[in-house]
Amino acid sequence: MSLSEGKTHRCIQCGRPAQELYHDYQADVIKIAHCEHCQGVVDKYIEFDPVVILLDAFLLKRQAFRHVLYNTDIQSHWKLTLVFLLCDAYTKLFRSKGAVSEKLKPDYVFYSALEWDLYVMFFIATAEMTICVVTMYALVCLVSKLLKHSTVSFREVLRGTLLSNFGKLLVVPAILWGQSDSLLYLWLTKTFVLGANVQAVRVVCQLGPFLSFVSVSLAHLLQLLAADWLHSRCSTSGIG
User: Fold this and answer.
1) Partner of 204 for a Cys bridge, out of 110, 116, 160, 209, CB 3.0 to 4.6 A?
2) Dist. CA 181–CA 187, nearest whole Å
């Protein structure tokens, strides 16, 4: 992840806009910038290893989310989203075949790419994510309007939601290991993704924890209802 250039940064502590992350003096002397509002370091993560940032993101720290969403220049978030959707599609494929509690052969992941059902599940996963993002954006816009907050950017909500779905990557190892409690692990992963979405909404929309949780939970609930409807439609049509 490279530092973003040419756009407004944010302090990872208070979330206020910042002019710069660091000041580059002559003779390669660099001084980390301090926030004009909270007087703290604007972004301590610019000195950290990406592994540390990733660990803090897994701990759902808002500071790490602000760093990734505002102070880095991630150009490949659409590629990451494609990977997340593929992980979700594999999970749905295995669950539809009743293979969650069975140990799969290591090469099954590659052979499953030849199955039509995988692409059906990919379409369902894409539809679910679209419904979730649109619903989430509509709810946070409604809440922001009622609270007379600033206008919420759909692009920021979309980017924050997509990147905060990184928890979907945790599902694949459990399925491949074929653990007897994989179904429980799947629901724990869904809960983690929900928590990450809540933190992303809090960072992007400047909402409190309760309103963010309600908005994201309603969006996820509608996503589950849409998933059940899509699965039923595919079943009655003989697809998947």
Assistant:
1) 160
2) 10
